[in-house]
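Review box. Two proteins, two foldings.
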Amino acid sequence: MDNIPRVLPKNCDVVIRKGSWDMLPIFRIIEEKSGVPDEELYQVFNMGIGMVAIVSAGQADAVLRFIRAQRHDAWLIGEVVKGRGEAVVV
């Protein structure tokens, strides 16, 4: 999740909620077998998140409907909050 802070203003964080998307089974296996801390797995593998679009809260549902109408998977995985330009996984 290292790339997300690159697009954030310095006074905003992104809070990403674990379990808010369908994680591929391979990431569960890596998580269970590796002994690597969660923080590292999310940083290195993004746990299956391929692309993130940051949109206004008022447009989020419309954006999700549009992406899904194109036959792609899409989830609301978090929110932008006041902060220091970081991505935080909770």
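Next protein.
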Amino acid sequence: MSSPTTPPWFDFRLRPLQEVAPWHGPDGPSLDWFGLTAGAYWIGLGSQPLSGPLDAENILASSLSCDLQVARLFDDVTALAPYALAEVPPRVDAFLRGTTGQVWRDYREAWWQLPDDLPQMEELDSLRSTAWEAKRLRTLSTSDLQPSFEILMWSFEGRVHIKWENRETVSGDSLRRRVLRGGASRTRERFIDELEDFSTRLCDAMEERMRQVQQGALGPHIHVDIDSLVREQGMRRQQLAHALANPGYADDWPAVAAAIDKLHCLRWRRQPG
């Protein structure tokens, strides 16, 4: 668990309940568990936050934070967790941590410039899909955050390795140009502790929010299915443990390693213009 002096990796603040905007459907305004997690969230893995407002005290009023449902980040993190904890072989570790990762990004950016009649296109497409899927499952996309960036997490030799790259050019008195790139590694135990800490803090906050809803804090004009809310809260308490115990995809590491090797051996020309 994060200590009082160590900021958590995944942090958030819920909006005051009276400021949560309801969904508007055919039966009128309503809210469910997901909607009630409206607020702001940010991520910090190094000595400074990778995302979020410069003034954390004003996060809910700041346009610098991610103003969405916190459950969205929670869902993404719990979906990524079992893959981040799955041990990768040395060839894949080198691909994820080294310059090959940048080469892969170059391949991806050049992909749409390849001529359709390239003889190797079918083979390249298959290889790309095989290698890309292993990387995608270990990438936490933060396109909703300001600034947006990607965090890549994978396990090798008993540790969880983390890489991030955050580039943004912004203007305005309250913003500054930031170029942030880095990496870290943590024990598996520390990584799981951070995930469990996030899960516990969110579910505890929602427990209090549910109590307020049950006491009528939203008013009668917003419909909330209390029974459904209670059921989902119970499921959310178990969501991380279930994700870790039941990963939905098994990597074919020999195929992934072979695809990476072949992609680096193949060469293609860019389409002129």
